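W.,

You were right to be curious about this one. When I first looked at the sequence I had no strong expectations either way, so I just let the prediction run and decided to look at it fresh. Below is the sequence, 408 residues in total, followed by the output.
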Amino acid sequence: MVDYRPIPDERDVFHEYRSYAFRPESGVPAYDPDEHEGPRGSLGSRRGLYATEAADDANPRCVCRHYWLESRVRGDTHRTAGLASVATPPEYRRRGHVRQLLAHSLAEYRDHDVRFSVLWPFRYRFYRQYGWDTTNRVVTHECEPAALSFATEAMDTVGADRTAFRRLEADDYDRIEAAYETHLERYGLALERDETWWRHRVFAGGDRDPFVYAYERDGRVEGYLVYTIDGEMGDRTLSVSELVVTDHDALLALLSFCHDHDSQVQRVRLRVPEDVPVREIARDPDEIDTEVTDGPMVRIVDVGETLSHLSYPDREANLTIAVEDSLTDWNDGTFRLEVADGRGECNPVTADESDIRLGIGALSQLVVGAQSATDLERTGRLEATDSTAVEALSTLFPEVETYHGDRY
C-alpha cells in the first residue's frame, strides 16, 4: 500500500532527491532554506509517494512537483498542470513507484478540473508508455554574430528615430504582455502567464537572472528576447531562450540586436519555434548550425471532460472514439463525441464498434493540434472504420502550430 500526499516538512528530502536525479555531478547537496525556498523555488506543489507499511522508513519512495497553470488550446484557456521534478533515489527504483505517482497525480489533476498535463521528459520513451506524447519541436540555431549582419543591414532602412531597445526589469513585465499575446494567439498550448510567473520564471533564473530586452517601434513594444551570456572571455555565447515578435520587422530587429554583440560574444544561440524563419531569411544559411529536438510532452487528463469543453469548428459531427489508456481507468474505453454549433459533448458509451481507435497520447496530440488525424493514421497510431471518420476528425481538430517553451 502507498500513500500519496503533499510534502510540507521534508523539503530537505525533496531537494536531495531532485538534486540526485538531475545534478548528481554536484555531489551530496546542502539544503539552504534561504536559497532553495525563495519565490522561484516555492512555486508549485510538492508531492510524495510513501509506503504505508514501512513504519521504520518514513522517507518518500519518489517525489514530484505540480505547477498549476493555464494554457491556450484552440482559442480557449484551459487549466494545465506542469509536472516536474519526478525523482526516485536509487534504493527505491524499479518497483513501480513512478507509475503509481503518475496515476495519483492524474487523479489529483482530475479533481481540480485540470484538462492537460505537460512535462519535459528525461527520456521520451519512458513517459510515452504512460500516455504523454510530444507537443512540439524546438529549433536551435547557432552561428557567429557576423552571420546575422543581414538583419542589421535591413534595419538600417527603418530609421533609428522610430526604434529603440530597452532593458526591462521584473517590474516592467506588463510592458511586453501585449507582444506575448501575439505569441499566445499564434501557438497552441502556449502558456498563459500571471504576474508571479513573469517575475519568478521569466525574469528570474535558477542560478542567475537572464537579460530581458524589448524592441520598440513608434513607442510600442513589438518584440522582446530573454537571454544569458555564457562562457568565459574569448569563448562567450549569447544564448536566447525566448524570442517573441509581432511581425517580420521585429524579428529582423532582434536578430540585429544579437549581431550587435559581435564585440562581446563569439557565438549566438537562438532557441525558437519551428516556424521562425531564421534560415529562410539569412544571407548565408550555411554559416548557421541548426538542430531540431523534441520539446515537452502533453497528456489529456480526462477525455470526456476535455473534449466536452473545447471549441470546435462550426459543423455537426457524431463519432465514437475508442481510447486506450493503461494508466487511468476513466479514459480507457469508448466515447461518443457529438458536436454542433461549435460546442461538443463527449460521454463514455458501451459499444462493440467504434469509428476511431487510438491511444491517449495520440489523442492528446490531435486535440492540442500537434498532429493531424491524417498523419496519425498514416503512421499507424490511429485506426478508422473508413476515410469519412478521418475526414470528420480532421475537420474537428485541424492541425495548428504548437509551441510550449516554458520550462519548469
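Here's what jumped out at me. The longest helix spans residues 97-111. And, maybe more interesting for your project: The domain at 302-396 is CATH 3.30.1050.10 (Nonspecific Lipid-transfer Protein; Chain A).

Coffee later to discuss?

I.
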